[in-house]
Write a structure and sequence with these properties.
The complex is a heterodimer of chains A (340) and B (670). Chain A has 340 residues and is α/β, with parallel strands linked by helices. Helix content of chain A is 43%, strand content 19%. In chain A, strands 1, 2, 3, 4, 5, 6, 7, 8, 9, 10 and 11 form an eleven-stranded mixed β-sheet that branches. In chain A, α2 links the parallel β1 and β2. Chain B contains 25 helices and 13 strands. Chain B folds into three domains: 242 residues, MetI-like fold (Orthogonal Bundle), CATH 1.10.3720; 103 residues, no CATH class; 229 residues, MetI-like fold (Orthogonal Bundle), CATH 1.10.3720. Classes of the chains: A alpha/beta (340), B alpha+beta (670).
Chain lengths: 340, 670
């Protein structure tokens, strides 16, 4: 009797413990998703999976990437949800990502998935380069709206173009790498030499050029379409221009951090993050998402963004990043020198 | 004399001060605080210095290749270094790279074609030699085989070593080393402008009978209460492309050196003004009487009496301003445009490019002018003491209508400049959509809708400032007490003194970066502090340690050394004396230290920008990040929140000081 009772107690205790362990699963998630979107995403996930608690560390792409790299030998994150694919490529080349094919990954558009099998990361949504053109200031100065990247090198735009510094901004690097892919290495640099003549400033962040255009601080801001739509919605007098030659793009993507102790929960999150429901959720702000057929038009954004995106070779862009940035810095990174 | 006695007498028993319990406790406390300074300052700086020597380069001896002919027969293994010696495809300088460097393996095979049936093998000669296939990391000494098509995806990765290469790279990259000239140039111009303006202001306050002196004093102190980002933001609204007063600049862009100099004058002004004002206040009336009786013109008196009398103050002010400007990060970040300066370079290298090693190199370079200015300033300050004599007569200004009017005009001009910046900033924060919709709204105060940390960052800042003020004041004051009131132990005391003075010379960016290296090392037992509020508190206390320490020392030196022996002879332990006499007597100084720490903890950006985490975002960093993302109006709104908070804290401090002085300082009144 005694023995039986203690056995039952032990079984009960074991059951309690295992259920407690499951109920208490907490994941540390590193993310660069915009603050206002993140809350929506997190709420939606916890409705479906109340048993997994997500603790977010959120910051800009550059800071999160630096943080992950700094923690390379002792990773603090379990999952990365919503970081630029180009950053994930850096982490992959450091051996920091756990390869895993999420359930349903085969339904996604192939260019949103890491080429290796099983993939180390999967894309969520894409953002693409675009030009913000301030119509009020343009009219004041008698400047026509540019139609293509090549237009930006015309002498009349001198001092009226602002673009992100590719060394600090992911958006800036995606512009530079897309020009090199579009125009070829030699013509790409020639193009940038010409553009440099017109650039008033290279900003630290990728959204700032568009906000500067929105405030009339510059006429033309090279930025990305997602930011542009937000500024336009706030009432700024800007046009969103998708250059004719095609546009560079990057995606927000997710991955499991190698060596996480909570692999099951991490897989649950990644599985959920590629689902149709999640993709519909991404579509609120992003015009292009990984799941085919779910995207509805986003207010203020052109509908042909996906068609205009270039065939981006992410591996090439990642493997040549260091060399390209070195060259870029050598050529352009001291726009103005002391006047005296 | 002493020598003669020494030789005359036989060597006796070596005299040693016998230590009582009090003395032991005091020394122990001093050692504890010294240890704190070592952990929070010296050790991180050392780690950063060593990081700047950690280099990355492609070590070709670590890789071996094997190539087959078209039929698939393998040739002899050959090392990459041998191939490079033969072909010379990669120059020595190309071998030096950063931690993200990659070298395509096909460069060693000039007749490589990805369509060829030739196969390739690669292996490392040591276990840690690593290379990428595509983006997949491989390492080790096993041979790996690739078709030509796959082999073009093979990239060699660099190995870590110790050496001077980072410095060589730095000085051979014009875009990097040009920043040294830029930084010195900016600091130099700002110093001349600030000291000139501040001298005039201080002169008017001390040597004229103009009206509104108290009001001017108050206005001059305003810039201390705001982060250095604020003048940058306000200047953009005033002189940017959509600026209110853009025409005044006649086409010269505010972005760049001009903006940095004007903004620097704004935030460095109060520091220079205070130092010069103190120097002018102690001048001796008798010198002027002598000059007058010798019939010297007022012009001549100015150059032969006033300026020499204030020279130490002027020199000291110049060095303080120089250090402030050259180490400032917020202002050039906001308004510098493409004009690179050292402090911003550190940020760019670390946050933008994740090139920590180069960030460390720039930090070491920024330390040089900062330390040089600091050393010269200390030397000058030592001489200053000798100037005051007991027989000095305080200078009494006489009314002079023309001169007073001139002074009033000068001070008004500066006051308008300072207040103009503040008003612009507040106005910008309230305008809906500059410059297209000038209606007022509070929407820019909805910080939670912006990147940067939201309102939580504001409350975090108050928490940080509060904790820093309380804990910091205790540490600083106890440390100063132990140094000042301990007998003997000279070596320990001067070591402590050195540690306490060191923070003054260390720029915030450098301190912050060195904290990353030191505390983010998983091998460090203090690693758990990383990303917490505690590390922000430690960093801020350390960053602003020196001024508090000097304030405490000045106050403690006023207390007669006799108190300790008297207390000891009455068999009172030192802590009773400390609590009943020392602390009450020094209360005004203690309050000054705490308000100083509070205000600076609210406004500092440079050190904490590397250390905050999601849960410990700070208001000052939010200003930076919102401006960075282009949300300039919310950035201005947050900067003004910092100002109002600091102004409130100052007011409380003022009331508190008044009450306390009335209660504890009655003995000072005769």
């Amino acid at each position: 009797m005694n023995q039986k009772k203690s056995f039952a107690l032990a079984a009960f205790a074991a059951m309690m413990m295992s259920s407690a362990a499951w109920a208490g699963t907490e994941l540390t998630v590193y993310t660069a998703i915009e603050a206002e979107d993140l809350k929506r995403y997190a709420d939606s996930f916890s409705q479906d999976h109340p048993d997994i608690k997500l603790n977010f560390i959120r910051d800009s792409t550059g800071v999160i990437t630096a943080k992950l790299l700094a923690e390379k030998d002792n990773p603090q994150a379990d999952v990365i949800w919503g970081l630029a694919a180009t950053s994930l490529l850096v982490l992959k080349s450091e051996g920091m990502l756990e390869a895993y094919a999420p359930k349903g990954v085969e339904q996604l558009k192939p260019n949103f998935i890491d080429k290796d099998t099983p993939p180390s990361w999967v894309g969520m949504d894409a953002w693409a380069a675009s030009i913000c053109f301030n119509t009020v200031e343009g009219q004041k100065l008698g400047l026509p709206a540019p139609k293509s990247w090549k237009d930006l090198t015309k002498p009349e735009y001198k001092g009226h173009v602002v673009m992100p510094n590719p060394a600090s901004s992911g958006t800036g690097y995606l512009d530079v790498s897309s020009w090199l892919q579009l125009f070829g290495e030699k013509d790409g640099w020639t193009y940038m030499d010409g553009l440099h003549q017109n650039v008033a400033a290279y900003t630290h962040s990728g959204s700032k050029p568009c906000k500067m255009a929105a405030a009339g601080e510059t006429v033309i801001g090279i930025s990305f379409e997602f930011r542009a739509a937000k500024s336009k919605a706030e009432g700024a007098p800007i046009d969103i221009i998708i250059p004719e030659e095609g546009i560079g793009w990057d995606m927000e993507a997710s991955a499991i951090v190698a060596g996480t102790a909570k692999e099951d929960a991490a897989k649950t999150l990644i599985d959920w993050s590629v689902s149709k429901k999640a993709n519909e959720m991404y579509n609120v702000g992003y015009a292009v998402v990984a799941f085919p057929g779910v995207a509805k038009p986003v207010p203020h954004l052109p509908t042909d963004i996906e068609a205009r995106m270039i065939k981006n070779d992410f591996e090439w862009a990642a493997n040549h990043r260091s060399a390209i940035l070195e060259e870029w810095t050598k050529r352009y990174d001291s726009k103005s020198e002391p006047k005296s | 004399m002493a020598m003669a006695i020494d030789t005359a007498l036989p060597p006796g028993r070596k005299l040693k001060l016998s230590l009582d319990r009090d003395e032991l406790i005091k020394r122990a406390l001093m050692v504890v605080i010294a240890l704190y300074l070592v952990v929070a300052l010296a050790a991180p700086l050392y780690v950063m210095l060593s990081k700047s020597f950690s280099t990355y380069s492609f070590d070709l001896a670590r890789f071996e290749f094997q190539v087959s002919d078209k039929a698939g027969n393998w040739g002899e293994p050959v090392s990459a270094v041998a191939l490079n010696d033969r072909l010379g495809v990669v120059s020595a300088e190309k071998l030096a790279t950063n931690s993200d460097g990659r070298l395509q393996a096909t460069v060693f095979f000039p007749d490589f074609s990805f369509r060829s049936p030739v196969k390739y093998r690669i292996r490392g000669t040591s276990a840690d030699a690593s290379y990428l296939v595509g983006l997949q990391l491989h390492s080790g000494t096993e041979w790996q085989e690739f078709s030509s098509n796959e082999f073009r995806r093979v990239m060699l990765r660099p190995a870590r070593a110790i050496g001077f290469e980072n410095y060589t790279t730095y000085f051979s990259t014009p875009t990097l080393f040009r920043s040294i000239g830029n930084s010195v140039f900016i600091a130099f111009i700002s110093t001349i402008a600030t000291v000139g303006l501040a001298f005039g202001f201080a002169y008017a306050l001390n040597r004229s009978c103009m009206r509104f002196k108290d009001g001017f004093k108050l206005v001059a102190m305003v810039p201390i209460l705001v982060p250095s980002l604020l003048p940058g933001i306000a200047l953009i609204y005033l002189f940017g492309n959509q600026g209110l007063l853009k025409e005044l600049l006649m086409g010269v862009p505010i972005y760049g050196p001009l903006g940095i100099v004007v903004g620097s004058v704004f935030f460095a002004f109060p520091h220079a003004m205070m130092i010069i004002s103190t120097a002018l206040a102690i001048s001796d009336q008798r010198h002027y009487e002598a000059a007058a009786s010798l019939r010297a013109s007022s012009w001549r008196t100015f150059w032969t009496v006033t300026i020499p009398g204030a020279r130490y103050g002027l020199i000291s002010a110049a060095f303080v301003v120089f250090t402030l400007v050259i180490t400032d990060f917020g202002l050039p970040k906001v308004i510098g445009g493409q004009f690179n300066v050292l402090a911003v370079d550190i940020y760019k290298q670390v946050i933008g490019q994740q090139n920590f090693e180069m960030g460390a190199v720039v930090s070491v370079i920024l330390l040089v002018p900062a330390i040089a200015a600091f050393v010269v300033d200390r030397m000058v300050q030592k001489k200053q003491v000798a100037l005051l004599s007991a027989r000095s007569v305080a200078y009494q200004p006489k009314p002079d209508r023309r001169f007073d009017a001139l002074c009033l005009a000068w001070c008004s001009l500066i006051a308008v400049f300072i207040l103009g910046i503040m008003v612009t900033s507040q106005f910008a924060a309230l305008v809906k959509l500059w410059p297209y919709d000038l209606s007022l709204s509070l929407k820019h105060y909805a910080f939670d809708r912006m990147d940067g940390g939201g309102w939580a960052s504001y409350y975090n800042s108050i928490r940080l400032a509060g904790i820093t003020a309380i804990v910091g004041t205790i540490i600083v004051f106890v440390g100063a007490y132990m140094v000042e009131k301990t007998e003997g132990f000279r070596a320990g005391r001067s070591a402590f003194q050195f540690l306490a003075m060191l923070p003054m010379a260390v720029p915030g960016m450098v301190l912050g970066l060195s904290y990353i290296f030191f505390f983010n090392d998983p091998g460090n037992p203090l690693h758990a502090l990383y990303g917490t509020m505690t590390i922000l508190v430690i960093c801020t206390i350390t960053h602003f340690y020196t001024v508090g320490h000097l304030t405490a020392l000045t106050a403690l030196k006023q207390i007669d050394q006799e108190f300790e022996p008297v207390a000891a002879s009455l068999k009172q332990p030192f802590y009773k004396l400390f609590a009943r006499v020392t602390v009450p007597v020094c209360l005004p100084a203690i309050l000054d230290i705490s308000i100083y720490l509070f205000v600076n903890a609210m406004t500092t950006v440079s050190a904490v920008v590397f250390l905050y985490s999601k849960d410990t975002a700070l208001a000052s960093v939010a200003v930076l990040n919102m401006d960075d993302a282009g949300d300039v109006a919310p950035a201005a709104a947050m900067a003004m929140m910092i100002f109002y908070t600091n102004a409130g804290a100052r007011l409380i401090h003022l009331l508190l000081s008044k009450g306390i002085i009335a209660r504890t300082q009655a003995w000072r009144m005769r």
